[in-house]
């Protein structure tokens, strides 16, 4: 969709499209729980394969251009032509472009803070629940609340926030929430506070930050939409995940417990917040330039 939507269409529609993903998570979990005892895990893979094929066939109904209207044969040919470029373009363009590098930093900091929060979650839950089954049920309940809250925000708020606040401020909501959450956890790392922080952060990521992140790519070249974005969503994200996994035990060896980790994570989230606002400004500038060029 990044390849066919304009910035304004992305602001209006990415949140609504995300509803499908949230509904899929809810329905998928319900189908699995219902059918696994009846048809076995192996046969559930066949069900998944059918669903994946159905999703692939949905591409047939995608619009072929950002306006969703008829285009000339030349434009249609360009829209469907191979992306081209070199195999290393995704990496090279990320290094050379301040804008793409900013998106990479955003994703890196998001991933690092997510992993640090995960280790805090494990530590606090282990102390609060001695029984493993109880812990599993506890986190399942959180997942349910997150999915319900996410779909409500996606339907009623996401598109409006992107329109009213712009991409930058909307992107900054998640890191701002993370600054407050980690700072609070640094003072009193309680189970109740963890549940509130975890629920709000995950819902904000799925319902607000992710659609805003997708909108960032509406102003880059077609090659970068496929190659640079792929590099950021895989390599950069997993690098941040690994850094977070190394950082948490390292801080533990330095004598920093759950509170100490939160105190370290809060300024990381603050930097992430500044990067969000910078990206929003650059995206707006690029969008205006793109609109101006299309008029001529």
* Structural class by secondary-structure content: mainly alpha
CA-based shape: globular
Low-confidence stretches: 66-76
Proportion of β residues?
under 5%
Count up the helices: 10
How would you describe this structure to a colleague?
The chain is 83% helix and 0% strand. With 296 residues, the protein is mainly α. α1 crosses α5 (132-156), α4 (98-128) crosses α9 and α6 packs antiparallel against α7. It is globular, with a radius of gyration of 21 Å. It starts with 6 loop residues before the first helix and ends with a helix.
Question: Could you give the topology of this structure?
Answer:
Elements: H1 7-57, H2 73-80, H3 89-96, H4 98-128, H5 132-156, H6 158-187, H7 191-216, H8 222-226, H9 228-253, H10 258-294
Helix pairs in contact: 1-5, 1-6, 1-7, 3-4, 3-9, 4-7, 4-9, 4-10, 5-7, 6-7, 6-10
Short description:
With 296 residues, the chain is mostly helical. Helices cover 83% and strands 0% of the residues. The protein contains ten helices and no strands.
Short key terms for the protein model shown above:
10 helices; 296 residues; single chain; 83% helix; mainly alpha
């Amino acid at each position: 969709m990044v390849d066919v939507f304009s910035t304004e269409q992305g602001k209006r529609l990415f949140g609504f499209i995300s509803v499908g993903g949230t509904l899929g998570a809810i329905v998928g979990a319900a189908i699995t729980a219902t059918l696994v005892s009846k048809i076995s895990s192996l046969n559930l893979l066949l069900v998944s394969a059918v669903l994946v094929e159905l999703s692939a066939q949905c591409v047939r109904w995608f619009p072929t251009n950002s306006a969703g209207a008829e285009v000339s044969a030349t434009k249609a040919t360009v829209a469907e032509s191979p992306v081209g470029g070199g195999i290393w373009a995704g990496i090279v363009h990320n290094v050379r472009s301040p804008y793409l590098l900013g998106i990479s930093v955003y994703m890196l900091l998001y991933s690092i803070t997510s992993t640090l929060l995960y280790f805090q979650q494990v530590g606090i839950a282990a102390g609060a629940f001695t029984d493993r089954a109880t812990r599993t049920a506890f986190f399942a309940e959180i997942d349910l609340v997150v999915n319900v809250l996410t779909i409500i925000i996606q339907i009623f708020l996401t598109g409006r926030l992107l329109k009213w606040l712009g991409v930058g401020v909307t992107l900054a909501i998640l890191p701002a929430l993370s600054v407050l959450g980690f700072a609070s956890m640094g003072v009193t790392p309680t189970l109740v506070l963890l549940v509130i922080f975890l629920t709000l952060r995950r819902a904000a990521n799925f319902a607000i930050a992710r659609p805003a992140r997708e909108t960032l790519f509406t102003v880059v070249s077609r090659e970068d939409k496929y190659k640079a974005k792929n590099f950021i969503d895989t390599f950069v994200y997993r690098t941040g995940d690994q850094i977070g996994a190394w950082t948490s035990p390292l801080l533990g060896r330095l004598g920093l417990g759950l509170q100490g980790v939160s105190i370290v994570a809060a300024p990381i989230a603050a930097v992430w917040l500044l990067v969000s606002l910078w990206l929003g400004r650059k995206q707006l500038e690029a969008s205006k330039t793109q609109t101006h060029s299309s008029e001529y």
